[in-house]
Structure formats: structure tokens, C-alpha cells
């Protein structure tokens, strides 16, 4: 059931993307001259939907360019980059993992924060438990999934809970935000603290409940061109596109906040 | 009466087992890939050892989370192995001894957890044993008992992934065992159950031990199904592989130390069991 | 002494048993397996040892497995000690473990994980004896077979002869109504076989139940059995006491088994016309279809036609091999025969394949008996 819904939404997304692409193709001319060749972008898993869309737009604007993505956990990507993976751009879901890369001397210039993400309470569709804030998650019979503290969404959750002064014992500390969200989708937990963008991506199955304390735990997403980028000029063009109006619009539509 | 040599057929007495000829030369065609294979298996371990922060090792080892995760890992893997023995040995017996329609299909189904990505296995377990699962929902409503996010859930997830190793090993042992011993037991008045417990099981004990060891080792290293089905909570569901994975997010050295602990403990246990159960052969 | 010829397959209880007394085993084993059919009437009295002989593939093992309940009859019946164990026509079937039997398997099948004592105690335990009493009975049996000192050994630490005796003790410890022995000496070397055979004979003589010995070794049968049943291709070809069967073979297989030349012919008084066209003068007097048997040692070989011998014919040597202290010469000619010659005679004859000699047999050395009563399969 869940799998079919996932497949359906993926198919709908494909239709939307291709439709959008064909509508905009014709009279857009590349602005900055010749951006050509392959660009390899290592991006945090939470950027999967929005960056795929941005990549299509970028290719439309630059017919000579091809964007290839590797979506994974930010820390895994950071390890791979520091081990010499041939990437042009790194978009991280946390400043810490970006620091790892930059400290290793693998960044070309300073990273720029291109987007921010804020925690919301993810609850099953229709909010059967009538959750309205963090306080509703504290009773012992309410099962809550958090991210593990080692991953960005978990660190953010700890910060938010501290800010709220809420004692919350989760049933599980998930390895990443998607895993936490999937526990909500499967109805194994009553709520999870995840990013607003993740809830937006799973719109049909989960609802996002905003809570004020999340303002104290906003997560910055930095992006950087890598020092050993095989295609540096195209990499810079891609980063510019992400920071530009059209790029930001796509990210905002996916639930991210502007920096 | 003279001995009837005309027809006496010397009973085909099996020739004495050929003494293994210890010729000095080992074929290079075997030795070379064997050596490469060993290097291939051992090098990553060496990689871990090279990066081990030996100076801070004692301090890291005594961190409370390490022992907790280790204890939980060993306990859960052992319980999962017991569960696999209780369910898997009879299943292997059925596959090896009873000719029922669809046996080939059943045998193929047994290996499903081997090919299924463990994370998918975990999701599948949730769909069955989860709070809203086919069986889990009933468990919840009837007994108020849910498996996900519990140690029992860890055991279940590990058993699911590890059981094929046991079933395949035991079925192979049962097929290799001489069924005529079971016939001999029957002629002495033993029914099927007594024959199974008193003759078949002891005969295939080495195979069961080997299967249990494989099963335990697989359960000990289980990650994907466990974290998906049982989640991750220190002391309850966080086994060593989960701890290692999360440590990797922030602290490579901690992850290496944890991996090393897991490796050392498992190798030590397996080596001691091997000597005791499987003999020196 | 002549056996009472009979027609198996017609009468389910064969009259080949000369002695009175109720049979402990009363069976007519019918097993169909593809193109093979076993059809074997069999009765055994208490204390009697019957040897079931036959070439490979004759159905000996099938018969043993059917008696043990390791395969079921497709026809006929099987009752043991007054109990109906298998009767397909009446839908009666008793599984192996509920049959009062003991089996000594060809390679013994001692449980490798149990000591000799526990192997023997296995059956008594299943009969409900507690561990201590079962072990006591097992120890008694091991003492009887002379293995008290080996009680604590596991099978892999026993010699072949010892293992055989443990297997016998294990089978007898359940005090079976029917003891089944499947080639019990086949796995032993010649020397051990001699000793073990003698001991086995003693224990079988003490066994109050019925015993069926499956073998293709005539010596085993002759030494151990009271009565022989010979089967070929699933059918009884001859049965009777040992002396009759060995003296009057009825098929080529039995003749080879007992080491006799056997020929079919037509008798007219003291003259028999053999199938090959040869006339033989015989000591016995008969009319009609007969079988003529004579030992290879009764065949004399001459380099020239012997004078005054009515039973001589030219024969070509097809093979020569050692047989005991003598040479056995295979001869072709009007009839195919084997002849035994002493080394001294061989030195003069120089028998070599291809050479033609004269063979002769004394009339008094032949045995003639009616062929009509031969049960044919």
C-alpha cells in the first residue's frame, strides 16, 4: 500500500518535471556563455526532490551541461569527498559535515548557506492524535521517533527540546530523517521530529505540525564548489543557479526556508 | 562340499580410504588465488587496525555505551540463534526428509532473506509484526504488546535475516546423513520423534553447530533489518552495528574502536566454539 | 533325502517345511516395484534359521525391507507371532517401530554417537525399560557376545568383528520374534569371518525366535541355516533343507552356487540325452525330463579318447584358473562343463585355452532327478 503510494507520487513527480521541462525549453538562452560538460553534485539526501528539479532546470538553461547527482547522508558524502571522490559540488545538510570537507582543504572558497530547514512534528495524515505542540508528545504511551543525535536532525531535535524544556523519551533514535519519517508513514510511531521539507515531500501520508521552539534549532544547508572539481566552471554555475531566484523558488516550494 | 568359487562374489568391500598423499607441491593455480582470497578478506581488517587510536583506546572502551551495546548484541544474537534453532532445524528436516508438493518453492522461499536487502526485510517485518501489521495489530489489540522498538524486535529481525544460514547448513547436513541409521532406529522400536531426537540430531550435530555459528555471526553483524524494524535506542535496541553506524556520522575513530570490539569478541567466541563443537578437523 | 518340491505362488503357506509346529512367521510377500515383482511365500518356525539366497537383484533386500516394515507390501500378507503386521487386502499396516523384529544390517549401522553399551541399550529403552535396567540388559548381551570390556567404546573404536557382534547384541536385546540378518558377514575379512560365523551360529542356535538370513554366500547359508530358500528375479526357484538343495540344484544359479555341473536332459532308463546332443550313461534310472548333476572333480580329462568309458566327449578348453589345491578347467563342446584336475595331472595335460581334450565322467558320479517338479518363475 505504502509502496504503491510512493511509486505513484514518484510517477506524478516525473510527469510534473518533464512537463515543466518541455514547457520552458524553447526560448531560454544560456546567460553566462558556455556552461558545458558534466557536473557531479554530491547532495544531502533531504535535497533529493528539490535538487533533481533544479538540475533539470539547470540543464534546460545550459543545454551543453549534464548534472549527475549522488544523494546520500551528508557525513557519508563528506567521507567520500575526503577520500578523493571525483565530485564538483557538495551540498550538505549540516555545517558540521561541511566543516569536515573544508578543514581537509577540499573546498574551493568559502561555503555559502543556500537554504535553511526547520523541524516540524510529523504525524500521520489527518493528525489522529490531535498533536498541537511538543507537550503533546511527552505522555509515556505516545511513541515518538527522533533522529539520533549524531545526525543533523537529531542534533536539531535536542536543541529544540532543550529550548522548550521538554522531557521526551523517544522509542527510537533513527539513523536519518527519512527513516524517522518512514516510521510515521508506517504508523509505527505517533510522531517524529523531522524537517519541514521532508514532510512536504511526503504530503499525502503525513501532516507537519509547526511548533515555536523549532526556531531555536534551525539547520543551515551550506554548499561549496570542491577544490578538485573536474569541471570547476560548470560547478560554479550550478551553485549560482541554486542561489538564484529560480533555484530558491524550487527549494521554497519543497518546504525549505531562505537563509 | 567345496567352496563355490565359481559364483562367490566377493562383497564389494569399500576400499580403505586413500591416505592423503602429502606431496610437497601445492599447485600454484590453487595457492595463488587462495592467498589472494585471504589477503582480500584480511586487508580491510588491517585497515581498521592501522587507523585504530591505540593511545585513547582504554578510555574509549570504558565508555558506558560500548559495553551496553556489546552486551545487547551478544544477547540478541544468541537469542536469535536459539529461535532459529527451534524453528529452523525442524524446517530443515522437513525440507530434507519429507517429499511434499512445492518443496522446491519452499526451499527457494527460505533463501528469500538472503537476497532481500535487510532494510527491505525490516520494512516487511514492520508490515507484518508492526503496530499496524497483520499479526502485530492483533498482538497489540489482544495483549497490548508491540514488537517494534523492543529487544524482542531486535531478536526477531536478526532471526529473520540469519535463519536461512542455519536452515541451509542443517538441510545439507541432513541430506548428507545416512537415512539408514534412522531405519535402524525404527527397527529398534524408535518412533519418528525419538529417532529425530536420539539419532538424527546427534548425527547431524556438527552440521547444526556449523549452521548455528554462521547464524549467530550473521545475527551479530545484522544492521539494516534491525534498525528498520526495531529502531535504535541505547540499551534496548542499539546493537553494536547500529552504534558503529551512528558513530561513523560524527567520529570515525569511535566507529573503528566499536568495530574492533565487535570483531574481537565475535572472533574469540567463534574460535572457542569451533574448537569445542567442531573438533580440530 | 529328497526335498518335497512345491509350487510357490500357488499355495501361500509353502509345504516345503517338513517339521510340524506353528510358524512364528507366516508371510506371503508380494511387492511390485516398476517392472520388478517379488512374490515370496515364507514361513519360519520358532528357533528355525532360514537362509534367503539369490543373486544380486533377486529381491533379497526387498524381502528383508518388507519384513522389517521399511517398505510396504503391495499384496499378500505378513503375520508375525500371531499378529497381522501387513495385509494390504485388509488395509492392515504396522510401522517398523511397532514390529517385534531385530535387524542386523550389512554394515551394522551402529549409532556412531553412542557407546557399544548404549547402542545395545537403545532397543530396550524404547521398550520402556528405564535407563539402568536397559543398560543392565545391554551389558548382559555384550557379555554374551564376549564384548563386556568394549562396552564403553564407540563404534569407530571397534574392529569389524566386534562391531558385527555389537550389532547382533543390539538386534537380539529387544528379544525379537523375528531376527533379520542382512549379509551379516559380508563386510568382514576372510579370517574374521570364520570366527564370527562360528559365534553367530552359536547365538542363532540360542535364539528362540525365527531367523531369516539374507546372503549370497553359500557357506554362510550352509553353516548357519536349517533351511534354504533360493530366489531369482523375485520368485522362489528352490527351497528345502541344506543337503537337498546342495545335492540337487535346480537352476544354473544354484548349480554354480553349490559348485556342480548341471544339465537338463531326457532320460530313458540309464541313458540320458542332454540338450547338447550328448548321451550320458547314468547310475540312477529315470524316465522323462530330468536334471543331471555332477561335480567338477568327477570330470576326468584325457589327451586321447579314453578306452572303455561310455561317457566321454571331445571338449575345448575355454579357461583355466586355480581352485583350491587344484586347477579348474572350463570346457566347451557338446556340453559346457567345469572339470577339476590335480596339479600332477595338469602337468601332463598342459591345459591351455583353445586346446582340445577328451572329457569323461563315471556313470556312478552322476545324479539324476526329475526336472518336472522344478518350480519355474
Write a structural description.
The complex is a heterotrimer of chains A (259), B (281) and C (377). With 259 residues, chain A is of the alpha/beta class. Chain A folds into 2 domains: 2-116 and 220-253, Periplasmic binding protein-like II (D-Maltodextrin-Binding Protein, domain 2, 3-Layer(aba) Sandwich); 119-217, D-Maltodextrin-Binding Protein, domain 2, CATH 3.40.190.10. Chain A contains 9 helices and 10 strands. Chain A has helices spanning 2-24, 48-61, 74-82, 95-103, 152-164, 177-185, 196-201, 232-243, 245-253, and strands at residues 37-44, 65-72, 89-91, 107-117, 119-124, 144-147, 172-174, 191-195, 206-209, 219-226. In chain A, the strands form 2 sheets. A 5-stranded mixed β-sheet of chain A has the order 2-1-3-10-4, with helices on both faces. A 5-stranded mixed β-sheet of chain A has the order 7-6-8-5-9. In chain A, helix 2 links the parallel strand 1 and strand 2. The longest helix of chain A is centred in the N-terminal third of the chain and has 23 residues, at 2-24. Chain B has one domain (59-277): MetI-like fold (Orthogonal Bundle). The longest helix of chain B has 34 residues, at 64-97. Chain C has 2 domains: 25-100 and 176-254, Rossmann fold (3-Layer(aba) Sandwich); 261-370, OB fold (Dihydrolipoamide Acetyltransferase, E2P) (Beta Barrel). The relative contact order of chain C is 0.12. Chain C has 377 residues and is an alpha+beta fold. Chain C has helices spanning 60-68, 116-126, 131-144, 160-172, 190-206, 218-224, 242-247, 252-258, 343-349; strands at 25-33, 36-44, 49-53, 75-80, 83-87, 92-93, 101-104, 178-182, 210-215, 227-232, 235-241, 261-274, 279-294, 299-302, 312-323, 326-332, 337-341, 356-361, 367-370. The two termini of chain C are 24 Å apart. The chains are: A alpha/beta (259), B mainly alpha (281), C alpha+beta (377). The B-C interface holds B 1-9, 11, 13, 178, 180-181, 183-191, 194, 198-199, 202-203, 205 and C 56, 68-70, 95-99, 101-103, 105, 109, 111-114, 122-123, 126-127, 170-171, 174, 180, 183, 186-187, 189, 216-219, 222, 246, 253, 256-259, 295, 297, 323-324, 328, 338.
Amino acid at each position: 500500500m505504502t509502496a504503491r503510494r510512493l511509486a505513484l507520487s514518484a510517477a506524478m513527480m516525473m510527469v510534473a518535471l518533464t512537463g515543466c521541462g518541455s514547457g520552458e525549453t524553447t526560448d531560454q538562452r544560456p546567460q553566462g556563455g558556455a556552461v558545458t560538460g558534466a557536473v557531479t553534485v554530491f547532495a544531502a539526501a533531504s535535497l533529493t526532490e528539490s535538487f533533481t528539479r533544479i538540475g533539470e532546470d539547470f540543464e534546460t538553461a545550459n543545454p551543453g551541461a549534464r548534472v549527475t547527482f549522488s544523494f546520500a547522508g551528508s557525513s557519508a558524502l563528506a567521507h567520500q569527498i575526503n577520500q578523493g571522490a571525483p565530485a564538483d559540488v557538495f551540498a550538505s545538510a549540516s555545517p558540521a559535515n561541511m566543516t569536515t570537507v573544508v578543514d581537509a582543504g577540499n573546498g574551493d572558497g568559502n561555503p555559502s548557506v543556500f537554504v535553511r530547514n526547520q523541524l516540524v512534528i510529523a504525524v500521520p495524515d489527518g493528525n489522529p492524535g490531535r498533536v498541537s505542540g511538543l507537550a503533546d508528545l511527552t505522555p509515556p504511551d505516545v511513541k515518538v521517533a527522533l533522529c539520533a543525535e549524531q545526525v543533523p536532525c537529531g542534533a536539531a531535535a535536542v536543541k529544540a527540546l532543550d529550548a522548550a524544556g521538554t522531557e521526551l523519551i523517544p522509542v527510537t533514535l533513527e539513523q536519518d530523517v527519512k527513516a524517522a519519517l518512514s516510521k510515521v508513514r508506517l504508523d509505527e510511531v505517533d510522531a517524529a521530529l523531522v524537517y519541514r521539507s521532508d514532510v512536504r515531500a511526503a504530503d499525502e501520508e503525513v501532516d507537519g505540525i509547526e511548533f515555536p521552539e523549532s526556531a531555536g534549532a534551525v539547520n543551515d544547508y551550506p554548499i561549496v564548489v570542491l577544490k578538485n572539481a573536474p569541471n570547476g566552471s560548470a560547478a560554479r554555475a550550478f551553485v549560482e543557479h541554486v542561489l538564484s531566484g529560480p533555484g530558491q523558488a524550487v527549494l521554497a516550494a519543497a518546504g525549505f526556508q531562505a537563509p | 562340499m567345496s567352496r563355490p568359487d565359481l559364483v562367490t562374489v566377493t562383497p564389494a568391500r569399500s576400499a580403505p580410504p586413500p591416505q592423503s598423499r602429502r606431496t610437497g607441491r601445492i599447485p600454484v593455480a590453487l595457492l595463488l588465488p587462495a592467498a589472494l582470497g585471504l589477503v582480500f578478506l584480511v586487508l580491510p581488517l588491517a585497515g581498521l587496525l592501522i587507523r585504530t587510536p591505540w593511545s585513547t583506546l582504554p578510555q574509549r572502551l570504558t565508555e558506558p555505551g560500548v559495553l551496553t551495546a556489546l552486551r545487547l548484541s551478544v544477547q540478541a544474537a544468541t537469542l536469535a540463534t536459539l529461535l532459529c534453532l527451534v524453528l529452523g532445524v525442524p524446517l530443515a528436516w522437513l525440507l530434507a526428509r519429507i517429499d511434499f508438493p512445492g518443496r522446491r518453492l519452499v526451499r527457494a522461499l527460505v533463501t528469500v532473506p538472503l537476497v532481500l536487502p535487510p532494510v527491505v526485510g525490516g520494512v516487511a517485518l514492520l508490515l507484518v509484526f508492526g503496530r499496524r501489521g497483520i499479526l502485530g495489530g492483533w498482538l497489540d489489540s489482544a495483549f497490548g504488546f508491540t514488537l517494534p522498538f523492543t529487544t524482542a524486535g531486535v531478536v526477531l529481525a536478526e532471526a529473520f535475516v540469519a535463519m536461512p544460514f542455519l536452515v541451509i547448513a542443517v538441510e545439507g547436513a541432513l541430506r548428507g546423513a545416512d537415512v539408514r541409521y534412522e531405519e535402524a532406529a525404527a527397527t529398534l522400536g524408535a518412533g519418528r520423534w525419538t529417532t529425530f531426537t536420539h539419532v538424527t540430531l546427534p548425527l547431524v550435530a556438527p552440521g547444526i553447530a556449523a549452521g548455528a555459528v554462521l547464524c549467530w555471526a550473521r545475527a551479530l553483524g545484522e544492521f539494516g533489518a534491525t534498525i528498520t524494524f526495531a529502531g535504535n535506542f541505547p540499551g534496548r535496541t542499539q546493537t553494536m552495528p547500529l552504534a558503529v553506524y551512528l558513530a561513523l556520522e560524527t567520529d570515525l575513530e569511535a566507529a573503528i574502536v566499536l568495530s574492533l570490539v565487535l570483531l574481537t569478541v565475535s572472533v574469540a567466541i567463534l574460535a572457542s566454539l569451533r574448537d569445542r563443537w567442531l573438533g580440530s578437523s | 533325502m529328497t526335498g518335497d518340491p512345491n509350487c510357490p505362488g500357488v499355495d501361500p503357506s509353502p509345504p516345503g517345511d517338513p517339521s510340524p509346529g506353528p510358524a512364528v512367521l507366516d508371510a506371503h510377500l508380494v511387492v511390485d516395484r516398476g517392472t520388478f515383482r517379488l512374490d515370496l511365500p515364507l514361513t519360519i518356525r520358532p528357533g528355525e534359521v532360514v537362509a534367503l539366497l539369490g543373486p544380486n537383484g533377486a529381491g533379497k533386500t526387498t524381502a528383508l525391507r518388507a519384513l522389517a516394515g521399511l517398505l510396504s507390501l503391495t499384496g499378500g500378507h505378513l503375520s508375525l507371532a500371531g499378529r497381522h503386521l501387513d495385509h494390504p487386502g485388509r488395509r492392515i499396516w504396522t510401522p517398523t517401530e511397532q514390529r517385534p523384529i531385530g535387524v542386523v544390517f550389512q554394515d551394522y549401522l551402529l549409532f556412531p554417537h553412542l557407546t557399544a553399551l548404549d547402542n545395545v541399550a537403545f532397543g530396550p529403552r524404547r521398550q520402556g525399560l528405564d535407563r539402568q535396567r536397559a543398560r543392565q540388559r545391554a551389558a548382559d548381551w555384550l557379555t554374551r557376545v564376549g564384548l563386556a570390556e568394549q562396552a564403553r567404546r564407540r563404534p569407530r573404536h571397534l574392529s569389524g568383528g566386534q562391531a558385527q557382534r555389537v550389532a547382533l547384541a543390539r538386534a537380539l536385546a529387544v528379544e525379537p520374534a523375528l531376527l533379520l540378518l542382512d549379509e551379516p558377514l559380508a563386510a568382514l575379512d576372510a579370517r574374521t569371518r570364520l570366527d564370527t560365523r562360528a559365534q553367530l551360529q552359536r547365538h542363532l542356535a540360542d535364539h528362540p525366535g525365527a531367523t531369516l538370513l539374507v546372503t549370497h554366500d553359500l557357506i554362510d547359508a550352509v553353516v548357519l541355516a536349517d533351511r534354504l530358500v533360493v530366489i531369482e528375479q523375485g520368485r522362489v526357484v528352490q527351497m528345502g533343507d541344506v543337503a537337498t538343495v546342495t545335492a540337487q540344484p535346480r537352476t544354473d544359479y544354484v548349480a554354480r552356487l553349490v559348485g556342480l555341473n548341471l544339465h537338463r536332459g531326457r532320460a530313458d532308463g540309464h541313458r540320458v540325452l542332454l540338450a547338447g546332443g550328448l548321451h550320458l550313461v547314468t547310475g540312477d534310472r529315470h524316465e522323462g525330463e530330468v536334471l543331471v548333476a555332477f561335480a567338477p572333480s568327477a570330470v576326468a580329462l584325457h589327451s586321447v579318447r579314453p578306452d572303455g568309458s561310455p561317457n566321454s566327449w571331445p571338449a575345448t578348453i575355454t579357461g583355466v584358473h586355480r581352485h583350491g589345491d587344484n586347477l579348474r578347467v572350463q570346457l566347451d563342446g557338446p556340453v559346457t562343463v567345469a572339470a577339476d584336475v590335480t596339479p600332477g595331472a595338469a602337468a601332463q595335460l598342459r591345459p591351455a585355452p583353445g586346446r582340445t581334450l577328451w572329457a569323461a565322467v563315471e556313470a556312478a558320479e552322476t545324479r539324476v532327478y526329475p526336472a518336472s517338479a522344478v518350480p519355474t518363475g
